[in-house]
Structure formats: C-alpha cells, structure tokens
C-alpha cells in the first residue's frame, strides 16, 4: 500500500513569474507589504535557492509558513536547518525549527491567515482565518511552519 503524497500546490507560470519579480524587488530593497527574499541551501545541489516569502511575527516570534505545502524550499529548510532573509542590503541569517505540534501550529496558521489570507487563502483548500479549530487542525499537516531565530 502506497503512502499518500504530501500536499503541494505548484505555482502556475504566472505565479512563478510574479514570484521572480517580487523576489527581485525584495533583493533590491522594495518590500511589498513585508515580503522578503528567502535563501536556503539546496539539499541536492548545494546552491542557494531563492524565493519570496512573507515572514510572520506572532507573539514576538518570527515564523515562515508554507502556504503551498511541502514545497522545495520546505524540503531544503528541513535539510539545512536555516537560511537567510533579505530585503535590500539587509541580510539576516537565521536558524529554523519546524513546528511539529499541530495544536501550536494551528495558532500560528490562524494568525498568518488573518494577516496574509487575502494573498494566500487560495492555497489553503477552503481554510481561512475564520475556519473552526477542527478544520484548521485538519489542514495543518499540509502547511509546514518554521519558527526562525535570527543570528546576532
């Protein structure tokens, strides 16, 4: 019996193009509503891979939430244990710990959807910030969350 495939919603060609523009803007100091460029070492290539992300602050801690699911950056982050966030010349190196507890993750995901839902609801398969706890808990395995700690 085969195991079910982990959820991942691949970006359309338009999404990929927009992401490259948003990443370029962040790299050059223009952040769209808080977006930054994430760089994480590729687990196979060893090269730094870049993608725009929306770092989310909740109760004083910073998180990265994968709206699209178990993407390449998520797999790379699991292997690397950290990366870099860039906005213009400001480059912050961080370590990352994946949140395994779905109860804890649910709280962060709800807050993330309250802040970024207008942009990412489409990737959450009908889940919104107003969904019930049970609905959010059911969605949590599909959306990895990492707590990040910036190195001083």
Q: How many whole angstroms does the radius of gyration measure?
A: 15 Å
Proportion of β residues?
25-35%
- The oligomeric state of the chains shown is single chain
Name the average pLDDT.
Answer: 92
| Major sheet details | 7 strands, antiparallel
Shape type? globular
Helix and strand element order? HEEEEHEEHHE
| Count of distinct strands | 7
Short descriptors:
152 residues, alpha+beta, seven-stranded antiparallel beta sheet, 7 strands
Walk me through the structure:
With 152 residues, the protein is of the alpha+beta class. Helix content is 33%, strand content 27%. The chain has four helices and seven strands, in the order αββββαββααβ. It has helices at 13-27, 72-80, 102-120, 133-139, and strands at residues 36-41, 48-53, 56-58, 61-65, 82-87, 90-98, 145-150. A seven-stranded antiparallel sheet has the order 2-1-5-6-7-4-3, sandwiched between helices. The longest helix has 19 residues, at 102-120. The radius of gyration is 15 Å and the shape is globular. The mean pLDDT is 92.
What is the fold's blueprint, element by element?
Blueprint: H1 13-27, E1 36-41, E2 48-53, E3 56-58, E4 61-65, H2 72-80, E5 82-87, E6 90-98, H3 102-120, H4 133-139, E7 145-150
Antiparallel strand pairs: 1-2, 1-5, 3-4, 4-7, 5-6, 6-7
Describe this structure in a few short sentences:
This protein is α+β, with helices and mostly antiparallel strands. It contains 4 helices and 7 strands, in the order αββββαββααβ.
